[in-house]
């Protein structure tokens, strides 16, 4: 599986990426080895993820999310958190 994800960094900024193993990727980000951007903004917290069969689909979606405004990214996050919360 391929995952597209958004993490919120310690400074409140958002980082979007893709991976084949989301748990390992989060560990890498939080150990300072995940990405240049997150390296100085740890810890990061997973706020959003989507799953795709192909790497190509995931990369296209990652690109589309990166082009969204911060407000639109938070709309995605809020819908995701609402759909995944226990009521």
From TrEMBL:
Record CDD domains: GIY-YIG_UPF0213
Assigned keywords, A-Z: Endonuclease, Hydrolase, Nuclease
Top-level division of the source organism's lineage: Bacteria
Residues annotated as domain GIY-YIG: 1-76
A GO term for molecular function: endonuclease activity
InterPro entries from the UniProt entry: GIY-YIG_endonuc, GIY-YIG_endonuc_sf, UPF0213_domain
SUPFAM superfamilies tied to this protein: GIY-YIG endonuclease
One Pfam family in the UniProt entry: GIY-YIG
PROSITE patterns listed in its UniProt record: GIY_YIG
Signal peptide positions on this chain: none
Family: Belongs to the UPF0213 family.
Record PANTHER family: UPF0213 PROTEIN YHBQ
Protein name: Putative endonuclease
Record organism: Clostridium collagenovorans DSM 3089
